[in-house]
Each structure stands twice: as structure tokens, then as C-alpha cells.
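DEPOSITED CHAIN:
***
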Amino acid sequence: MTTNLLANELKLPCGAVIKNRIGKSAMSENMGSKGGNSNETLNKLYERWAKGGSGLLITGNIMIDHTALGEPRNVVFEKGHSDENLKEWTKAGTQNNTHLWAQINHPGKQSPKFLSKRPVSPSAIGLKPPLNRMFNQPRELTEKEIYDLIERYAFAAKISKENGFTGVQIHGAHGYLVSQFLSPRHNQRTDQWGGTIENRMRFVSLIYQAMRKEVGNQFPVSIKLNSADFQKGGFTKEESMTVVQHLSEQGMDLIEISGGTYEVPAMTGREKAVKESTKNREAYFLDYCEEVRKIVKTPLMLTGGFRTSKVMNDALASGACDMIGLARSIAVNPEFPNDLLSGKNVESPVKLLSTGLKFLDNIVPLEIVWYTEQLKMMGRGENPQPNMSPMKAAMNTILHIGMQGLKKVRAKEVVK
């Protein structure tokens, strides 16, 4: 490869500099300690990734309310909560001149039944079957609660900065609370928080403003946003572009592009929402990035589907995006970014998983349990096992947690 654009620095609008164009996108580790604290396993995992060469590491879900979790072992940032390990985590994850950003999130209605008897959402609209068997019907948020949530997002950003994270990311994709506010399917309010796209994006706009007030103008604030929900009556590509343009004008430092929700998980590459021609280009949402680049100058990070150094460099050369987001590739090979930076033509070994038995594939969420095992191994100081049998992962899952436990696992977010 004559020119390796992946090795170039990226200067953000706030002035911060990321040493290269490779970003580890968030994967929900679900490895926190009881009570919502970080721990030594997260330290080891992120130290491994920091040494692997990525310029940017974005954590998995960090929740803003211990009563509203996406998974039982989420880390939580909220008032009255103390986490003595946090600075050890950030020390580990910022080695090798690496940026470590906290992904701040609230699940909204995507909090499983075993965690939330009555979750909250912009409107009292449940998830469609069969997900309604795993998630309870939500109640509608009051306006007072909405403002409280905005303050919680801002507080989490403040805690992140104070404890050594070098930036924050608002999780506005994949059907979580911010995504629910943006979607006309899930947000059917008739007050200032619903109706027009201008009203529906008020929530995320005020979150950004509150965060910026807490962390100042020189600290990176970013967002992960859906290119679309790929659902009838959902958040559209045109609406997404309106939100991107608005947040860009407000001063967002980096916008990560993804897509899909629990109901239509396009971010996994398995869904019909991702056309075969798009899969062949590797990057699932590249077409969208090419369009949105025409209307904003804010740095864009594109996540989902990248597998080869050639395609990554082509995407950067085209100007469609400024950073390449990787997840599964770094879960099976933490040295993959260093391999990419070497300038050689390298390819990720990631492929869709199958036990070979369709009925078992439908029961066990392989894209969750198999990759989660890889993260846990690194958290124990071991090497990942890219050749681990999907059948072995499936059977281990069934033996360890049983069929009822599988229902809980299926409530987790899939990695990219």
C-alpha cells in the first residue's frame, strides 16, 4: 500500500488530536462489578486495546441511572456513586497516547424485564413482538423527568473528565433512549419533545449543551447516531441528516455513523436492511456518509462492516469519513490496528457465526455470547480465541445459564 491514510492524525474541532484514524467502536462489555463499578478486568481489557494501536477507544455502555440498566453488569455514573477504580481504568486505557472516551447512555424501554419492571420512554409504546416478551411495556416520561435525565447525562460527562477519560460519546443509536426520542415510531408525544423533527431532537440537543457546559470547549464531545432505523414509521435518513447538521452547527466534535435498532439490527450485517451490494463494499453505511459529508464539516467516524485495509483507506481517501470504526475485528485480534498501521494489506478474520444448526442459531444469540467470551478472556489477561467453535460457545451458554438465562442474554446489544 503506497499511502496509508489510517496512520494520519485527526484534529477535532475542540483542538484535541487523535494519533491515527482508527477508532474502537463501543462494545457492551457487561463486565462491571456489582453496584455499577469498574474493575480490574476492564483495566486489563482496555490496556490490551491501548497497546493494540487504535487512536481512539470508546467504552461500552456507561449508564446514568442504576435503576435503568441495559445489562446487569453495566458501569454507572451518577450522583452519590463512588468508583475508586475509575482512574485506574482510564490510566490503563490512555496508555500509548490513546484517547479513551466514555460512552454515556440510558436504555429507555430497552431495559430487560429482569432489570426493569416499568421502564421509561418518550411514549408508552412497547417493542414489537417477539421483543415484547423480553422487555416490559414502558411508561411515558414526565417533562420533569426529561430535564432530570439531561442533568444526569451532563453529570456523567463531568465525572468522565474528572477521572481521566479524554472525551465522551452520547449513545444516540441502536434504539436506546436518545434514539427513541428521535424516532416518530417510538416518540408520539404532542408537547415540545415530540412531533416535528425539531422537537424530537430537542432532547439530544439539550444533552449536548448541558455536557458542553460541564466539560468546556476543549474537551471532545461526540455522538453515535443512526443513519436510519430501517423501520416503517421510524427515524429516516433525511431526519438523520437534519440532526447531524444541527449537532454539527452546535459544535459536536465527532459524529459516529451506525444504524438499526434491537427490532431491526442492521449494525450486525445480518439484516435485509443492509443490501448485498452494500455488504460487498464492506462498510454498511458508507452511502449515507457520502451524502452527509456534503452538508457538514464535522469529523465523521463510520462503523459497521469494515474488514480490509484497502477498503478502509479508500473510504478515507474519498473524504466520506475521517475515522474508521472497528469492533468485532479488535475483539478477536487486539493487534489488528497495529497490523493496519503497518501499511500491509491485511484483512480481518471476522465472519458471520453459525453452529451449523439453524434452530440453535435462532435460540442462541451467537453474535453476543461468542464475542463477549473474547472480551472476558482479555479481561482475565488471556488471549482471545478467534477459532473458538460457535457450537462450543452456544453449548457453554446453555449449560451455564440455561434457557431462561438466554432470554436475558438476548436483551443485550449485539456488537458490530
